[in-house]
């Protein structure tokens, strides 16, 4: 007993026990922590496989079995999850019929979980723009006036200064933005759908994108104190419309008076 008591009082034994306890705790934590990544990886792989099956059944006829593209559809390699979510969630894809441009439409072909799976599969093929995070879409502190300047500089040539959209060449058009969500606006800027150029974060930082989203959202909710806004096509065009209507009314009244005078 005296021998054991002496051993317990030895400083080296205390240090050894402390090291053993630290190794035991560290090893247990590492074992527990390694479980979660493995589960997440398996879940992600399952989603990718589901997306691949959806792609083969619904998209490969135009985009190719390996997403390499065909004469009927562009390659999907490198377009990223954001492009898939934008096109499919808005009903642009799959296209209802061949045309110059895919238009947005209500769709119930895919659920959001299926769209996420399609996006995960395409994202697994090659790096590309990812879907925006909640932080990316938070424009609560953005400068609306600065967003207006950025919009008129980069977007108004096609979408019109008030976001009403407009015609382009070869039967294409820039869509009206009055129903666009911040998520759709962000996705469109980073992926460049249809005839739209790509505005990467290097070209247009996230803060500038948020300012543009704030400006467009302001347009969507702004009142029209002057009455009928006529699509906010501008004071010159609106004035011309008014004068045309006035002159048409005066001519109609003159013709009516002339007929009655006979």
Short structural description:
This protein is mostly helical and 262 residues long. Helices cover 57% and strands 2% of the residues.
Written description of the protein model:
The chain has about 260 residues and is an all-alpha fold. Among the domains are: about 90 residues, Cytochrome c-like domain (Cytochrome Bc1 Complex, Chain D, domain 2); about 80 residues, Cytochrome c-like domain (Cytochrome Bc1 Complex, Chain D, domain 2). Helices cover about 55% and strands about 0% of the residues. It has a two-stranded antiparallel ribbon. A hairpin with a 5-residue loop joins strand 1 and strand 2. Helix 3 crosses helix 6. The longest helix is centred in the C-terminal third of the chain and has 27 residues. It is elongated and about 130 Å long.
